[in-house]
Amino acid sequence: MRFRRKIFERKILAARIIVASAGYRRKGFIAKQVLKISQSDYDALRQHGEETYPHECCGVLLGNFVDENAKTVSRIARCANTREDSPHNRYHIDPKELIRIQREGRERGEDIVGFYHSHPDHPARWSTTDLAEAHWFGCSYVITSVEKGKAMISNSFALVGLEERDKEFMDEPLQISI
User: Fold this and answer.
1) What angle, rounded to 10 degrees, do the helices at 95-107 and 2-26 form?
2) Mean pLDDT across the stretch 124-129?
3) What's the pTM value of the predicted model, to 2 decimals?
4) Catalytic: which of 50, 56, 104, 168?
5) In what order do the strands lie in the sheet with 174-177?
6) Catalytic residue list contains 84
7) Residue 169 in contact with residue 134, Cβ under 8 Å?
8) Which of 36, 76, 85 is nearest to 56 (CA)?
9) How deeply is 150 buried, as exposed, middle or buried, from its count of CB atoms within 10 A (0-12, 13-18, 19+)?
10) Domain spanning 2-177, CATH architecture
11) pLDDT tens digits for 15-70?
12) What span, in angstroms and rounded, lies between the C-alpha atoms of 117 and 25?
């Protein structure tokens, strides 16, 4: 029953996000969603990108949805990039690994609040491939630019929309705490 409730809550959250973002865009503003992350988790996901350079790293952000405007990361889970055809500019998380991470998180009272990956020698902006392969509405997608093996910039984007045909990424501030 708890799993169904979480899915229902995620759908409600996604609906609130798209409604809020549509309203803000009509007024010329961007919805103020925030991803809260500790300095140590922020540093760890950036280090992961440096360690896997020149390939993309990837991982899962676990935590809680505070409300429709904020998500808090309580831990990150590193994942193996199982993409074999082009790991230097694409990533893939094995579904079995993702299910294991989700199950372990749920046991600790955590939800999947987002994902992270690196862009080796490319900007920390989402690509059309990133958008096409993003399916977790209401979640954050953190992208770190890694230039010549050094993490440079990390940006977060919230996936909003109600269906695949109307999904989009919106810039989302990262709030880093000590």
Assistant:
1) 100
2) 97
3) 0.84
4) 56
5) 168-172, 150-160, 140-147, 111-120, 58-67, 70-79, 34-38, 174-177
6) no
7) yes
8) 85
9) exposed
10) 3-Layer(aba) Sandwich (3.40)
11) 444 444 443 343 333 456 899 999 999 999 999 999 999 999 999 999 999 987 89
12) 27
